[in-house]
Amino acid sequence: MNPTALIAEDEPLLAQALKAELAAAWPELTVLATAGDGRSAVREALRLLPQVLFFDIRMPGLDGLGAAAELADRWPVDEAPMPQLVFVTAYDEYAARAFETQAIDYVLKPVQPERLRKTVLRLQQALAAQQQAKPAPATADEALERTLAQWRQVLAAAAGNGASAPPATSTAPLKMIAASEAGGSIVRMVPIGEVLYFEAADKYIRVLTAVHEYLIRTPLKQLLAQLDPEIFWQVHRAVVVRSSAIEAVHRDEAGKLHLDLRGRTEKIPVSRLYGHLFRAM
């Protein structure tokens, strides 16, 4: 069977240009569909189960990073291996070099045939190795974890190199958060030591302590850069928890992980991408 792909690109002309260049560089590849936004890309990917994803990093609504993170959690691994992931980016030469040094597959916009051929060669080699391996059930989990580790690297590198200039010097971790009370106009200064977890929701981030809920407008990516990674762990694309607040980790009948936090009654979902944090499970 011919290899298959899905293109997610919000600019139709650029999507068609990439499709045409792929036809020239990889005639055997069948592009099953193109999607114009992240939500459509997730829906079509889960419907078609392509072997390769070409995702534009910047798309309206759910961007390429968010779409990839959601697919990592929802991909039906019992039906098809997780796909190869390639980011489509308009970032400049500085960011492109950063992707290269971390072995991240990317396609620079406008499409450059020579660079695309290198990506195609990598993809062909990866798919061939995947076909030859055909892991037995006993090693299927190991194969999945290797793929998830690769996706973590891809997503982390892409998120860290989203600007066209060198990254700014990191600042000291937050000690206090100025947050509004849910449904109110009062701003409270919340000590970071009281926060049990953060949850992204629509245009806000919920800030949860043992007894209160607050709201902030800081994007999760920006918030993560201000938190101590030894103290706060990202466990889901939308959730960051205080590691010392984790009381127990549960695995349900479907194999999904959930956390119990001291001081909270709700279950906190753990994405497949971050399951490695709880290896003992």
Automatic annotation (TrEMBL):
SUPFAM superfamilies associated with the record: CheY-like
Keywords: DNA-binding, Phosphoprotein
Membrane-crossing residue ranges in chain numbering: none
Classification via Gene3D superfamilies: 3.40.50.2300, LytTr DNA-binding domain
Molecular function in Gene Ontology: DNA binding; phosphorelay response regulator activity
Residues of the HTH LytTR-type domain: 189-281
UniProt-listed PROSITE patterns: HTH_LYTTR (PS50930), RESPONSE_REGULATORY (PS50110)
Domain Response regulatory intervals: 4-124
4-aspartylphosphate PTM sites in chain numbering: 56
Protein name from the UniProt record: DNA-binding response regulator
Naturally occurring in which organism (per UniProt): Variovorax beijingensis
Lineage of the organism: Bacteria, Pseudomonadati, Pseudomonadota, Betaproteobacteria, Burkholderiales
